[in-house]
Amino acid sequence: MITATATEVQNNFGHYLQSVQSGEEIVILNGGKEVARLVAYNSITDALTGVLKNDYDDKAMHAERIKAREDFD
Length: 73
Known about the structure:
- The protein is α+β, with helices and mostly antiparallel strands.
- It has two domains: 1-39, YefM-like fold, CATH 3.40.1620; 44-73, no CATH class.
- The protein has helices at residues 6-11, 13-21, 46-52, 58-72, and strands at 2-5, 26-30, 33-38.
- Strands 1-2-3 form a three-stranded mixed β-sheet.
């Protein structure tokens, strides 16, 4: 994982994009705080991809979470 300031990423975007394409993950800092993460698209999990595409059933996911909590107790 690479850490870079927002200014560094802005000024050297091509370099950081190439790093991401090579499998690196970039954590972007602004004011010393983590504000974003740059990752390759194909590294996003299927579940997250569904959320991003709005291709999920939030009621079913909520029910699964409740069931998991009940099973945990």
